Amino acid sequence: MDNCHKLISRRNELTSNRIAFLSCVPQPSYAFVHLQIESAAEEPRVLCIVQDTTNAKTVNERLTLNLPASTTVNKLYEDVAHKAGYVNGTFCLAWANTGDMAPLDQASEMSLVLSGFEAGKRNFMQLTDKEGEQPQIASVNSSGLDDSSQDRFIGPLPRDGTVGCSSDYSSPSYSYSSILNKSDTGYVGLVNQAMTCYLNSLLQTLFMTPEFRNALYNWEFEESEEDPVTSIPYQLQRLFVLLQTSKKRAIETTDVTRSFGWDSSEAWQQHDVQELCRVMFDALEQKWKQTEQADLINQLYQGKLKDYVRCLECGYESWRIDTYLDIPLVIRPFGASQAFGSVEEALQAFIQPETLDGPNQYFCERCKKKCDARKGLRFLHFPYLLTLQLKRFDFDYTTMHRIKLNDRMTFPEELDMSPFIDVEDEKSPQTESCTDSGAENEGSCHSDQMSNDFSTDDAVDEGICLDNTSTAERALKPKSSLTFELFSVMVHSGSAAGGHYYACIKSFSDSQWYSFNDQHVSKITQDDIRKTYGGSSGSRGYYSSAFARCVKPPKFLDVEDFPEHIKRLMQREKESEEQEKRQREIERNTCKIKLFCMHPIKMMMVENKLEVHKDKTLREATEMAYKLMDLDGVVPLDCCRLVKYDEFHEYLERSYEGEEDMPMGLLLGGVKSSYMFDLLLEIRRPDQVFQPYKPGEVMVKVHVVDLKSESIAAPVSVRAYLNQTITEFKQLIAQATGLCAETMRVILERCYNDLRLLYVPNKTLKAEGFFRSNKVFVESSDSADHQAVFTDSVLWKLLDRHGNTIRLFVSLPEQSPGSLANRTSCPKASADSEDSFDGAKGSRKSVEAILEESTEKLKNLSLQQQQQQHQQQSSSTSDSQKSSEHSDFELIESPAQEPDAASQPSQTENCTRATSDTENQFPSEDHSSDTLCNADSGPLPLANGLDSHSITSSRRSKAHEGKKETWDTAEEDSGTDSEYDENGKSKADAQYLYFKTEPYSHEDGSGEGQKCLLVHLDKRITLAAFKQNLEPFVGVPSTQFKVFRVYANNQEFESVRLNETLSSFSDDNKITIRLGRALKKGEYRVKVYQLLVNDPEPCKFLLDTVFAKGMTVRQSKEELLPQLKDQCKLDLSTDRFRLRKKTWKNPGTVFLDYHVYEEDINISSNWEVFLEVLEEPERMKSMSQLAVLTRRWCPAQMKLEAFREVVLESSSVEELKEKLSELSGIPLENLEFAKGRGTFPCDISLLEIHQDLDWNPKVSTLNVWPLYICDDGAVIFYSFVLLQCWYCM
Question: Does the annotation mark 82 as catalytic?
Fold first, then answer.
């Protein structure tokens, strides 16, 4: 097996309760005595709030310094060192609340303000380690700390802000010894990835085991045979080398977890430490097969015990030998209120036999009858390293919650295991045929003929000094030979809902105890160990403990004694660490800032990140940005410059004339993790000169509007001052655009939703609402439109159209409408329509021509249908159609016009001609059709009920035209609001809104042969009007095609609310048109799936259909019959299939024929339903009945029979068992059943079906826990069971 998380086969050890823990222990806070800092001068002050993150005691404390703004960075370091009690130069200061922890330069002479600090505001900093080393503590008298604060806390550290920490957990106050620096302890900690404290504790315990560490060093990795990334032994070897030789305070464990096969999410899943240990050991054994370390795990950790049953009448004994890696000890026996007081008491209870009598009598093979017997466990062999696990986690059947047992349980420093060994078995010289291969190897013999096969188990391997005497000799030795010395304690602090692991380990080198708490390593005492016994009001207690035999352990390998391959590995890791250190130094001095550039070829704003050393000049940074934006060969370097830029407001803040040789660190205000501004690589033409940008200026994008051509030009950038008047501003625009200032009208667009005419000459730009970046429209002509009220003018209507116009990509159906005779009454015309489109595509024929031809062909529809459509049109609509014959503002229900209609002069007052020359919106519009609709001289009535003074613009500037909007969610349109009358005609009022189309083809060649349109339209248009405008291009009436909105993940949802506008759409959204009848009011589109309960894939899609509100289930079944026959080749009758609820893949409620949709059955758009073919007439007649799916489990054949349905008249368990007995012939007393779990068909491993399911629940009805069967479709497994005691062998 290659990685740990896939290892599910384990050695046959004793089971125990386990749970994953997620929360942490908050610690008491300690107050600092803050020093008063006198004001240095009458100048702005900088408030610095510093959090010390280097140790557990001070992580929740804040140092506050109120310094003059002229204070330098190196002076700040001195003040922080004095106040925190550290030696200056042994720590770093970095900005807090940012993703990039780049420290401040300690040697910098820059003032705080120039370094990015803000005067008059709180500036949050973090005090961190320097190069992995903890800060050196200065003398107590100069540290500014009181005496009590020097008593640093050891144990579960606070994990502020970490996901999974329990905020309601409080820690008792322990007086542990003070934390020592890494240089004092000599040990390296492990970084907690997220919730890997349990893993860190286990790894440190293994590292501190000399036998394991030395054996791991002696193993040599062969890179030619395996990938080092996935090799668990190799990654452990690397980790141990780093733990022994690294200069860092803590190192990462990501490479180790990656070798397990874990992804990043598994670092957030806390597991049981004993479980992880077994899985890791299994992985190591798999990797070490056929090597010298093959039997290392067994020699160190594996013990053996005997599980026996002895007849009390004849002495016959049945037994088997089990192996174990740890001994699980019960703290509180089941049903007892008093816990064991010590490990010795728990061990004695562990081997205490129980008597099988009464109904639990044992069937003796020698006596051939049931007899009283004694069942128990005997230890046969203890490992070299003995692990005891306390079962501190239990289940409270009263509250039905998991609980943690915090009872006090003591353990000795030396544990004598001789009282618990089976001395008779140890002395027995005879060896039977039984083996120790696990639970399946069993034997039987008399009590005086016990097996003994452990004479060679204690061999010496890899320099491990074990007691290699035979078991018989060991039994004759004094009891002290079975004495174990405590060397590791695993502690869990918290509750059953969450907690934190750390380890207390005794070093074999100096007999000193250390606390290994993630990245913190500290010395502790025996008193600290005794505080982990548990009890009192705290929730801290040791979870497991490890003992070693009282023999002289081997020494750890020193660096000079490393094998050659470990020395090479150490050298590689040292070089890697040095390289990482150099890289960190570079990172500390690198400015990282967003860079933008309007690319002259791509014609879109390109974004990148500029990473430049703080000592690089502006000239060098410009060259780096030039190469980064790939402009070499596109524009000369001297035509580019870097300017300060605000991307959010699209504002050029300032330029850097004369500062080309200034270091970037000074220009940007120092090295920061993030900046409040960006940089723009500005490009000019060779004949242009860069315009200087000064702070305090505002930028205005000026769009020139031409009323004659109804076009809006691309923006021209103009810089102005907020104190300028409107008259001065007009003169400035006149100089930039060449327009006449006397006749100029200036319109300010504020916040993309408001247009304001600037007509007060002496009013300043600030008073008019100008900001850093602004957008205005200007028009200068002698037309009569100047005399009209602004909201009634042609200019306002043109800007209104501009602000509400969006661009959509529409994919037309590929299938020819002519082949769908059942969808249109004129297939010939539809086919011709397709031909006309193809012709237009091949010859680039104008869309006006396509529109005209398609409209002519639609006139070939039957006279009866045409008359019905005209009868339903209102008189106002007819009048509008008549007026459109003489006006270029056409009603959207008559989109067709003559090719030369655009050249006709307007004969309606206040109406203008819509053209295709809007340069800034619609590129390549040489062949297009326009339809601009204007009702009267008043404000436009919008379809959403808003007046025309509220204009929402979705248009973005040139800088954003390259960005595509991403849809994270796809909201479905409901089918309940479809607004069709009885004849299928839309009842939505016609709106006079803009609609223009042009042919479109995919640039990348995808969708070749697909008919596509690029549609520019007013987003206030209703869906009904949108569909009517598309009729000429689709070739069928709007009632015969559907509109689907395509989202970013290519999901499609049908839009069916015809009376709603397209306001939720935005630029470049994609639309797909599909042929088919559109929904009417009260109709729902339904997907029908066939339920095949006994097929490998039980859910099979059949067809799409339509159900209507008020329709009965039987009516829907009758409508389905011809569709099933034509599309699915299913010839059925209404009484031989049923419809039922579909929830994901699970079958649910059976719908009865008399049920009515939306009255008895809730239905929604894109609803899904199951169709189930019946082998016999329907048995479900009433809602009080219950239909369950049953499946028989045959253990003898190791198979599951096919599903069979059982219909119950009530929710009685007795009725269910009677039905199952009648169905299968199993007597009631021999029938057991269980509810299936998971998604239908509730697949389950045949090897685990008895363990994973809850068989024969003790309930009388089906609708209570643990069954909860309240609806049709539940899965029931049942089986035949013999009434025989489990212990009969």
Answer: no
